Structures are given as C-alpha cells and as structure tokens.
Amino acid sequence: MRKKYVFNAKVQRKLEGTLFIAPWMIGFVIFLAFPLGFSLYMSFHDIKVVPGKFVYEYVGTANYKNILTESSALYDNLIPFFQEAVIMIPIILVFSLLIAILLNQKLRGRTLFRAIFFLPVIFSTGYVLVEFVNQGQGTLGFLEKFAIGDIAGQVLAGSSWAKPVQQVLDRFVLVLWYSGVQILIFLAGRQAISSSAYESARIDGASPWEIFWKITLPAMSPYILLNLIYTTVDMFTFPFNPIINLITTGGGKYGYNSALVWIYFLIILAFLSVVLFLYSRIHYKYAGKDR
Fold it and tell me: What is the largest CA-CA distance in the chain?
C-alpha cells in the first residue's frame, strides 16, 4: 500500500511539473520551433509566389553556395560590422560596470539615477534609435566639439578600422544607451559582494584601486561573463546591423533569405564561441591559472 502511495505521489509531482511547463512548451513549439524548422526547410527551396499559393522547388544547397561563394554581399557587410562589435562590446561592458559601481554608492536620488539609465531600454525601439541618429543626435557634444571622429579617421587613415571607429563615435550615445540591462546585472552582482570583505581590506590598508582589482573585479567575473554573452547576442540585433538589413530587403527571395538567416545564425554561434574562449583565457590568466 505504501509503495503504491509513493508511486502515485511521484506520478502526481511529474504531472504537476508537466502542467506548469506546458504553456511554455506549447508556445515554444508554435512560435519558435515550427518557424525555425520551416525556415530551414525553405532554405533548401526556391520559392515562387503564384496566385493563391506558394510553389516550392527543391534546389538543395544552391542558396547556401550562392551566398558563400558567388556573392560578396555577406562579406562586405559582415566584416565591418564585426569590427564595430569588437569596439562596442568592451565599451558597453566597461561603461556599465563603472556606472553600476557608482550607482551602488550611498548618494541622494540613486533610485532616480538607476531609472534614468534604464529608461532607454524601455522607451527606445529600433525605429526610434534609427530616427534619433538620422536627426544627428547620436554623438556626444564634446566628441563633436573636439572633432574626435575626424582625429580618429586621420590616425587610422588607410586602415580598415577607420570607418568602423568613426561610425561608433557617430553613434556613441546609442552605444551607451545599450548599457541599461548590463548596469542592472552588474549592480545586482556588486550588491551580492559581502561588505565584510571590503571592511577587512580597508583595515589591512588596501587602497580603493587595490580593492577594485583584488575584490570587486574577481567577484564580478560571473556577471561579466553573463553580460558578455548578453551584449554579444544583443549586438547582432543592433538597429544598424547591415546583415539584418540585408535579410529584410531581400526582395521576396524567401529561400535565399532563409539560407542567409541560417548562415548568420551559425556565424553568431561561431563569434560567440570565440568571445567566450578569449574570455576564458583572459580570466584564467588573470586568476593565475593559465593553462
């Protein structure tokens, strides 16, 4: 009797768990899994629109070969964007970390300041940001006053990095606006560090600079990794991402665009893998565990 009761209790717990995750599973299958599978199916077909229906003609990997070997559009847009991402990701991480440490201080109105830094995440959509930049409001005043963009262009003249650096400087406000979520994550990580660690360091005579490098930064490493992943993925949906524009302006080539999406997805995974590998090497080296 007891074994039967235990068995029924296990079944009941599994059933309850299944019911709890059922809405998510249904939503995943309908709104994510099926569209993903269907886009993969379309990438191997040439799709024509005829009155009342779509005609699918199987072409195998022709769309992929066309993108990778017969056209330079992907490479012409991808390489400059990679260069921009390499510049923007460290700026966002460093800026958000410094602001999070500042907002963790006991100062008047810090709740208001936290809300101000997070507001762009709530109110700014891709179209708002695009219009913001089109009106010439994407850069900081002192960058224009001292012509930092022109100076950077002259220093990097002849280099493939000149244009990406100037574009980042022209949209520098947007780069900082993309730090809202990262600031909150770093703020939560900073508040998770025990105050006793800082008190012990001060008693031992450690300077604020030493406290930052020996206590704050090592303790924040999990949050740095989290923000690194989030920022990297977020950059690939940046409003000025030329690859997204290339996909959305494909002129009704559904099979070709689907193949481009899957290639872009694999590129994101590869880029993210490289970023995580570099982070792991730097982290272990900093921690004295270089392999």
Answer: 84
